[in-house]
Amino acid sequence: MQDSSSVKSSINGLFVTGTDTEVGKTFVSAALVKSLTASYWKPVQTGPDQDHDTPEIQRLTGIAERSIYPCSYSFPDPLSPHEAARRVGQTIDLSNINLPSISEDEFLIVEGAGGALVPLNDQFMMTDLMVKVNLPVVIVARSGLGTINHTLLTIEALKSRGLTLAGVIMNGPENRGNREAIEEYGTVPVVAELPRCESVTAESIVGLMPRLQRFSESLNRN
Ligand SMILES: Nc1ncnc2c1ncn2[C@@H]1O[C@H](COP(=O)(O)OP(=O)(O)OP(=O)(O)O)[C@@H](O)[C@H]1O
Ligand SMILES: C[C@H](N)[C@H](N)CCCCCC(=O)O
Ligand SMILES: [Mg+2]
Questions:
Q1: Which positions in this protein are listed as binding ATP (predicted)?
Q2: Domain count of the chain?
Q3: Annotated catalytic residue 42
Q4: What ipTM score was computed for the predicted complex, to two decimals?
């Protein structure tokens, strides 16, 4: 196990994971890219081209081409990476997934696929990629009923691997009780609460920026 508190990553950035797939990792990543003036990388993508996260980030942020790094692996079936790779006769090799070299003043948002314990192959899970890139991890959690259990399980999985937690971002209608329970039982701060948007557009992402300002300031990216 790697003690990430003592080994600083070679770059500045955050790894965005979630308590599940479809929980809002790309939505939150777009808000973080915008608020932190960051670059974006989705190392492992599964699903058809029209559902890819990278073009969605471009649509929502208007980020320059040069600030988007190519996926290391992409598979057409909308499945867990280990299975999507197997369907096309491939195996994901963790040694082929390497942080892009970015400039000193650049900040990188890395988005996982699915949740923390999604398998990449018979040996490694998404958490092993988090350990490898060694960036502080943000957990995207739903705000509603059921989120306490999912979020605490995710926190436990990350802490037990020595990963540094930057905080939880709650996505959906504000729920003070759930926020307080996550902070108390998970001993991790909820760094932002993002509301449900009627439509997800570049304008709605800009509208979220004030909610991420304090978090951005804590990362010295304001
Ligand atoms: N706060 C929100 N308001 C409105 N729509 C949202 C919000 N958060 C997420 N969505 C929508 O919910 C869907 C799932 O969100 P998103 O694609 O961000 O999930 P994900 O966790 O990135 O999924 P994956 O595991 O496939 O990467 C998308 O259509 C997204 O636009
Ligand atoms: C296809 C989907 N949108 C993601 N790209 C992959 C989600 C994998 C989830 C695996 C699981 O936890 O069962
Ligand atoms: Mg996504």
A1: 22-27, 53, 111-114
A2: 1
A3: yes
A4: 0.99
